[in-house]
Every structure is written in structure tokens, then in C-alpha cells.
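Re: weekly structure request thread

Next one in the queue (362 aa):
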Amino acid sequence: MDEINVTAEVLSIEQFNLLEHDWNTLFAKSEQRFFLSWNWMGSWLSILPSQSRAMVVKAVVNNEIVGLAVFCHSNVRRHGFITSSQWHMHRAGVAELDQMWIEYNDVLCAKENQLAVRDAIIKYAINYFDFDELAVSMATSSRLSTKSSIPSHSFWVDSTAHPAFKINLSKPYKPSKNLHRQITKTEELLASNGGLSWSITSSQEEVFNILDLGKHWHQEKWRETPTPSGFDNAVFESFHHRLIEHNNDENKVVVVALSHQNKLIGFNYLLTDKHSVYFYLSSFMPVNDNRIKIGYFLHNKCIEWATEHNYQYYDFLAGESSYKQRFSDERYCLFDNILQKKKLSFYAERMLSKIKHKLVRK
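Done, posted below.
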């Protein structure tokens, strides 16, 4: 491969349309996962506050763009005494702005020479940005870059794995006997009162209507937990409004809705690209009868639809929920990778973490 030239420039309003063109052109040559489509990236960039520091890093070979990534800066304080200047790839580093939660995070690059292009961009970021921590969250690889790109005397490299699950639809899908029994029983109990129906749509108007009717169940379920519903976050809602508006033939939001007696009782919110259907979130009416598994029934319908439309995978994404494991036949991992400067405050934080871990184990 010829020499890779890497540059960085501030993402401005004037540059936004040009970036969209360059991004879509390169995306067409990539493995084309939804989370690196302009649907996702453009929607995310559009909700960043005007004061955000966002940099576009570009890799070029022979005047052709072969790699793109966007890094955002944030300042954080942990434990009351540790401060850190951070740069995040395809995240803002602020909880409110990151609740939409990118997965399959990576440098956008063509299928050819992915490793070399990724290394070039990460190496450039290490040398160009002034940082305490450089983070690539929910990445496809635990390998941030080649070891030669990261001076070990100056940095620690940490990688945390997040288990994820999916179904390979190239093989006949067959749920376990117990799972099949629960799905069948759910259908019998709901249909016994008549009027059970399900529908699937990517129409903007219909998707917005379903979300408005059913999101309150999601809000009520998660409101008093450490991870409240994104529907309680105006930034999250704005992002998804834009995401739905970006729907196109190959990369789009699809909603599967379940109704009983003409009233919505639940929905699954899906993301789709050329190869996969990604389960993003669900919201459904709580029921007192523990024999009724609305979530199971919805997933079964989604999997049937994905199979009929020749998708290769139904992907539950990261998270160790038991239902994901019950449905899935493949397990994989996504990784939080952090490059951390070797400084005294971080060393103290690491020592305290080790002591705490030992005490918990005892």
C-alpha cells in the first residue's frame, strides 16, 4: 500500500455537507454496518452542542480518502480529585450526549487495508491530540492499534470486553423447546380474547406515532434505575427523530408493533443495514400473568421477518440479558479501549481500584 497521509481539521458547519459526501462515498466501500452509516453519524453530529470540540481525522492515499473518524473532546473529574482531558472516537464523552450508544465502533475505512488505515488514524490521534485519555468505546476489536504505535513507557492501554449475542440466519432458526412453548403460550393467551395483530413499518409518520404511544412503558420501567430511559432525555429523542428522518432503502429504522384489540401493547425498535437486523430497544405493556412473554413474542416475529427478508443476522448487540442468550446461537464481544497517560493521579486511581477489588473478593 502506498503512503497514508493523515490530517485533522475542526468540524464546522461549513464542512458538514462535504463530510456527508465523503462519508457516504467511503461507507459504500466499507463493510457497511449501520452504526458507521451517515444515518447514525450525521444524526449524532447534528445534536452536538455548538461549543463541542469535534475534529475530523482523514486518511488519504493517492488523493483518495481511505479512512475517516470523528473525535470529540471532554474534560472529566472522577472521585473528586482526578481530572482528565479526554478525546473520544464517535462519542462526546458526556453521558447525556452518548445515551444513544454507538456499537460496532471503528474507523470508517474501505474493506482493503483496514488494519493499516486504522493504525494510521489512531497513531495520528495519539501524536496530534493533547490528552490524558483517548477512548474508543464499544469497538469491534480489543486492539486499539499496533503496539509500535503506542509508546509503552508513556501510556497504559486498557480493554474491557462486553459480551454480545446474535443469531446466524444463514442456518434454519429453531428456538429451544422451552422457548417455543413460551412463545406459543403467549400467543394463545393473548389471542384468546381476540384481536391480536402485529405490523412492521419504516414509515416516518407511523414510527413516530408508535413511539409516542408506547414509549411511556420504557420510561416507567427504567426511570428509577441507574440507567433511566433515553426517552427521558431530550437529546436522545432529538437524535432518534433525525435518525428516522434519514431512513433509506438499505440503512433504516424499522419498528415492529404488537396490538391487542386494536390497542398497542408493545414494540421493538430495530436498525437495519444490508446484512443485519439490530435489536436496539423495546417497550411493552407490563402484564400480571407471568405466562405472557410479550418480549419473547415480539422477538420471534422480528426474527421471522428478518429470515424472510434474507438478512444474515439478527443481532441483540451488547448486554448479558438472559433472553439474549436464550435466543442466540453466537456470542461475540465489543470492547471499551482506553489509552491512558502514565501520570501520578491515574496510578493512584489504579492502586485504589486494585485494593477495592481485593476487598470485594474477600
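Residues 5-162+334-361 form a domain with the Aminopeptidase fold (CATH 3.40.630). The longest strand covers residues 64-78.
Next request, please.
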